[in-house]
Amino acid sequence: MSKEGLIGRRQVLLGASLGALLTATGGVGPVQARVLPARTASVLSFHRDEPWLDKSGLGRPFHAPGGARGGAVLADLSDEALRRLNCFL
Amino acid sequence: MVDFTADPARRGFFSPQRHDAELLDCEVLGKLPPDLEGTFVRLGGEWYYPPSRPDDAPLHSDGYISAFRFKDGRVSFKGRYVRTARFKANLKAGRQLFGYYRNRFTDDPSVRDLDGTVSNTTPFVHAGKLFALKEDSLPHEIDPATLDTIGPWDFHGKYKSLTFSAHPKVDPLTGDMIAYGNEATGPASKDVFVYTIDKAGHVKHEARFEVPYVSVMHDIALTQKHIIFPFAGYVTSMERLQAGKVHWGWDRTKPSYIGILPRDGSGKEIRWFKGPERCMMHTFNAQTIGSKVILYAPFYDSNFFPFFPNVDGAPWDPTKAKAYVRRLTFDLNSKKDSWEEEVLFPTQIGDLGRIDPRYLTQANRYCYTGFADPTRPFDEARGGNLRGRVTNSYGRFDLTANKVDRYFAGDTHSLQECCFIPRSANAPEGDGYLIGVASNYAEMRSELIIADAQRLEEGDIARVILPFRAGPQVHGVWVRPDEIPAFPRAEGIDA
Fold this sequence. Notes:
The complex is a heterodimer of chains A (89) and B (495). Chain A has four helices and two strands. Chain A is α+β, with helices and mostly antiparallel strands. Helices cover 4% and strands 35% of the residues of chain B.
């Protein structure tokens, strides 16, 4: 199953936030129409148990700043391939 | 044109950097110990041009020497590729001219008569000179002020072996250096030449012997009376080299051997002991006590290097590439040709082990080395998932109390070889600092950590931050100002 098909923590949090918002405003239709299709509101998620606020409203997951995650390419390697690259890792 | 894209693995933390570097007055997190003055010199390898064979050994990459200089409460960094004949020939051609690891038959014909060493293993200081060592050639002398390469050194013409070990030993009581050359008369030769070189740098004794079979003899151990020569498993031959293969293969049917030679003896006096399959690369220390010789070493069960393939065609087995702190006991009064071996700690370790250098040849309490602690966290989101696969801890292995003290580098870090620095010339064993370079995979940078060797569990007391990667290290050494005054000289800081 693709990741797109799963409901993640972000969607749950978004739903909870939306519910709270609806309760607070007392309306349903107009608010839903404004928030969901355009997704312009900030999205709250968590990284290392710290809140991560994606201000783009696109629901992008957290990624460390560019140039980081230097071990990601290495993580895909087998033990043998890793040692072939650097035997004193 | 230089192009590393054929190997996707080289896009990550170990992508080549290909630059010399100098950083004056480095950023420091924490507080540097005020009594720390000297230079931490590192040597390792980075490919300046891509290897001509994609499966070649990383041990064949170009030597890169670097130095962290501690002086007046500040640290400066300098790093340079070792300008070997090979490096210069490649640079002139604009491509990799050399073939498989230490197989001259696979080199471009234009460079087959050139010294092919990459000089990438151990930085070493003796008699006021700084050297870059690699076991397939003579030492390369390095200018400590600039880290420029001066060239090969043959000890006033008195050192006759064609090769020089990456692990000579200096007797702390006399200043004598015990050095040796394996494959001393050429590739696949059984000759080993051993030298005692006095503290002024002059050869004063030579012994020659042949090994039972040609193998990697990477390190030795030294006592006040004996020199200990371990080797095992790796094999080579002229037939193998002519067939165009990498220099070493692993033959698990070969016994391990350890030779014991009286320090001032002739080659005829060497006594060989035989043991089971082991991969014997590095040692901690040794002592002669009466008729017993005791060796402490971080030997592996079997082949550690996947790029030196099994000669029977079997795949490399990572479950056998495990090292432990071992004690080997030899009884010189016995007629047996075997030794007794004990595994002293259940912790699986890396074999780049160190001790307090003042205690070489004598009884010592502590051994230091790195290991991968799988119980420690690794932040996959920030570093990539390398949990349990990289050295994230240093351990102080207490041989007396049978206890391990641990330092943890962080949840996006791995650690290179550590180095112990005594707090002062007269400090008791273990009183000092444990230092080493950490790779920070989240920030794509290197950090030199400095920890109190008696308080490893408390973490480091300072980190020197490099805003770039310092590159892979094999070995490092701490150089005191009385060995060579603090170096290299730093423009704008030094008069």
